[in-house]
Amino acid sequence: MTSATESLHERVLRWEHGSRFYLAHLHRDLFGQWGLTVVWGTRGGGAGGRKHHPAEDLSAAQALLAAVLRRREQRGYRLVDDRCYPSE
Length: 88
Hints:
By secondary structure, the protein is α+β, with helices and mostly antiparallel strands. It contains one helix and five strands; from the N terminus they run ββββαβ.
């Protein structure tokens, strides 16, 4: 069963550092499970990657996102975009 807080929002954050970028997307997958997908690379370049981190629930996914926030800040990345969207 889905609680009211779990259906509120997906969140997308983007950081940049020089020509590098890092994007984190907190979202539900096709089966309704929360997870965090991260994408990284260079603007205009081919180097980069993507990884999905499944989570048990919304709070676990938010904890994963908090760890990413700390790591990006420690590595000198600047947060350039932070958006929330309704989750279906």
